[in-house]
Write a structure and sequence with these properties.
Layout: E1 10-15, E2 44-49, E3 55-62, E4 75-78, E5 89-91, E6 94-95, H1 96-102, E7 107-111, E8 119-120, E9 131-132, E10 140-141, H2 149-162, H3 164-169, H4 173-193, H5 204-224, H6 229-248, E11 255-260, H7 262-277, E12 283-289, H8 302-305, H9 311-314, E13 319-321, H10 322-334, H11 344-347, H12 355-364, E14 368-370, H13 371-377, E15 406-411, H14 419-422, E16 431-433
Parallel strand pairs: 4-7, 4-11, 11-12, 12-15
Antiparallel strand pairs: 1-15, 1-16, 2-3, 3-7, 3-8, 5-6, 9-10, 13-14
Helix pairs in contact: 2-4, 4-5, 6-7, 10-12
């Protein structure tokens, strides 16, 4: 659900702690965008390189109002899984980011890798003039007729070698097997085509082009959508925080942070891991909206939306196009005969959003995510709650040691993260319900 639409009767849980000195990552490389697309409604758009990858993360910046009292710390906003910055700035009259900037906060929205305007630069990939890829449309594969089949074979082998590291790592074993099988088929096409006596030779050009097109689509998915929750936690979030610290220069080096859904889970996980490693998080305080590390005490509807029952099946699909699926389903959920009407309450509590704003949210706020990201998040339904990628670290275990003040907010009409799920984070932490349960 959206960060404001899921909370009809909010309940506030205060986790009382104190702060420490900041832990600073190596300096980030400062790079602000010279221009910003129309979709970016922020005052400024910045790009943050992630040193251990080819990703450049988008940061939407909202400058503090000159008429408001200037705050001591910049504010970082983190969105939920598979969402971009639009949820925090849906319209001028429905913008949490604008509201906070008017209160004097230097406000930043982070778009994690794969979300919104964040971009991936892969050296050499897609540069060949003989293969043209147009994003958002059917890929057009152009084969120059004066090239020999052996030249095509070399080209294919070269393309495959670019992905060899990904396949050899074995991180996506099921996907790797599919790609290797696909490779053998294309090699078979090449070998068949090199025999002039065979009738396949005459339609080989068309067959190869079609096969190579499908193969390149698969390679693009493997390269672009190869990350999980730990990548967000260990690479994206620290890079963005350091960038903001350098830009804003708070005296104590700390940031304020608000996280919605998975954004709040990221903040919980960072606090827990920093406590375990004996370092400071660099956060002055944290507010979470509909977030939990452990959903087992709740009847969250998320169980129906995530591939909990059979994770192996999900590995056969490299990505989950959340945005495309919701956009396609929206007409069936919002118009007669309303056959998918059950979807809408998962996004927004009934009556909480204007229909036009709700439609804008559904059509623009959601993105595509890797299956293995969702698979790691399914551990919130297992005993002990969310864990790292190899299952050796439980993020909930050390949260109670954090000295950073936390305000956890839940909505009693939230089907995905109800109040009892938020209580699932309370182990070892002083938590107080500040508003009575609503009827």
């Amino acid at each position: 659900m959206t960060l404001y639409a899921r909370i009809q009767n909010p309940q506030f849980f205060t986790l009382r702690n104190s702060a420490q000195a900041p832990y600073l990552q190596p300096p980030a490389s400062l790079k602000a965008a010279k221009t910003k697309p129309k979709t970016c409604t922020a005052d400024e758009l910045h790009y943050v390189p992630v040193s251990s990858s080819d990703w450049k993360l988008a940061l939407w910046r909202y400058l503090p109002s000159a008429r408001a009292q200037r705050r001591n710390h910049p504010l970082l906003l983190l969105s939920g899984v598979g969402t971009n910055a639009i949820g925090y700035d849906l319209a001028p009259e429905s913008s949490f980011a604008r509201f906070m900037s008017r209160q004097g906060f230097d406000t930043w929205i982070l778009e994690l890798r794969g979300a919104g305007l964040s971009s991936l630069d892969v050296d050499g990939y897609g540069e060949d003039s003989e293969i043209t890829l147009s994003e958002g449309e059917r890929t057009d594969t152009v084969y120059k007729s004066n090239k020999s089949i052996s030249k095509l074979s070399e080209k294919f082998i070269h393309l495959f070698e670019r992905l060899s590291d990904v396949l050899d790592e074995g991180k996506n074993s099921a996907i790797a097997i599919q790609i290797k099988d696909f490779t053998r088929k294309i090699v078979s096409f090449i070998e068949d085509g090199q025999l002039p006596a065979k009738p396949q030779f005459y339609n080989f050009q068309e067959r190869f082009s079609s096969s190579l097109e499908d193969f390149l689509k698969q390679l693009d998915l493997i390269v672009k959508y190869d990350w999980d929750f730990d990548h967000y936690l260990e690479e994206d979030l620290p890079a963005a925080m350091e960038y903001i610290r350098i830009q804003c220069g708070p005296k104590d080096g700390k940031l304020l942070a608000v996280g919605h859904s998975m954004g709040g889970i990221l903040l919980y996980a960072m606090l827990s891991k920093c406590c375990f490693e004996g370092r400071d998080s660099g956060l002055a305080s944290v507010t979470t909206l509909a977030s939990s590390l452990d959903y087992t005490p709740s009847k969250s509807s998320l169980k129906l939306l995530l591939p909990v029952a059979d994770p192996a099946k999900a590995l056969n699909v490299p990505v989950i196009p959340i945005g495309a699926l919701l956009a396609a389903a929206h007409p069936f959920a919002s118009r007669p005969p309303y056959i998918l009407s059950w979807l809408n309450p998962q996004i927004s509590a009934p009556g909480m959003m204007h229909p036009q704003l709700f439609e804008k949210l559904v059509m623009n706020n959601f993105c595509t995510v890797p299956s293995k990201l969702l698979l790691q998040l399914t551990t919130v339904f297992q005993e002990g709650g969310l864990r790292n990628r190899d299952g050796s670290f439980f993020y909930k275990a050390h949260l109670g040691k954090s000295k950073v003040p936390i305000l956890a907010i839940a909505g009693d009409k939230d089907l995905i993260c109800p109040p009892e799920a938020v209580y699932g984070c309370k182990t070892g932490v002083s938590m107080h319900n500040r508003l009575p349960q609503s009827s």
